[in-house]
Amino acid sequence: MAVNRLCCCSRRSRYSHVEKMTDLVAVWEVALSDGVHKIEFEHGTTSGKRVVYVDGKEVIRKEWMFKLVGKETFIVGASRTRATINIDAVSGFAYEYTLEINGKSLKKYMENRSKTTNTWILSLGGTDYRVVLEKDTMDVWCNGEKMETAGEFVEDGTETHFSVGDHSCYIKAVSSGKRKEGIIHTLIVDDREIPEAVE
């Protein structure tokens, strides 16, 4: 007599969806204020299937699309950033896949982002933190969460205060005195300056 056994201890890998991806054609990593997000795209050129994953979670699935070119638009992260994957035919059955973030090519978006944000990566008490300042809004993000801040005018500029755990932090903004350089932002944590990261 055959006995069927059910195992109740099966563990799923965080990336188990990758094992199922037979038509994976593109992977992008996008640094946003709320974190670095991985975008994966499957395109079945015989079935027309389109599947988009953001950070391992399926956000779009379309089966049996007869039009093999087009666009797929979706939202990424807590900052609700709009992303679009463009699918273009280049020759015969070859396709090109490009990612746009907020209506700009990924390259242009990242170039613009380096002008509109500052990013710092630090470790406090064995925990890694990624702090991002959005210069246009003065919003501060830490590990994917928008922080409660308090602005203060000081003698040589401004300070934006916030806390990370039980650590006192602030971002100091002072004029560089040079028109092309503009304002210089510095992160201070527990009275210690943190060097800016390059993303």
UniProtKB/TrEMBL annotation:
Localization terms from the record = Cytoplasm
Keywords in UniProt for this one? Apoptosis, Cytoplasm
Q: What is its main location?
A: cytoplasm
BP GO annotations: apoptotic process; negative regulation of extrinsic apoptotic signaling pathway via death domain receptors
InterPro entries cross-referenced by the UniProt entry: FAIM1, FAIM1_dom_sf
Q: Which Pfam families match?
A: FAIM1
Gene Ontology CC terms: cytoplasm
Regarding protein family, the annotation reads:
Belongs to the FAIM1 family.
This one is known as Fas apoptotic inhibitory molecule 1
| Record organism | Callipepla squamata (Scaled quail)
Q: Mind giving the lineage of the organism this protein is from? A: Eukaryota, Metazoa, Chordata, Craniata, Vertebrata
